[in-house]
Amino acid sequence: MSSFDDREKSFEKKFAHDQELQFKVSARKNKYLGQWVSKILGYNEENEKEYKDELIIHTHCGGSRRDPEKIPPLGFFFPH
Prior knowledge:
Blueprint: H1 2-41, H2 45-61
């Protein structure tokens, strides 16, 4: 039964690793997207950093530290 326990642990490790990697990729994508959008909006360096951080928080935590109306919707940049 030890081999089944080892196999289970290895699958759990792989799952945790995959989830962490997916989070990092998504956070990096949102960082670059926020950087690109803030340049289009003409934000200065300080506002750009704040916008990128806010986009990452909003995407991963489902919330915002400031008024959500201040974050332009991405549909503005990517029309359907």
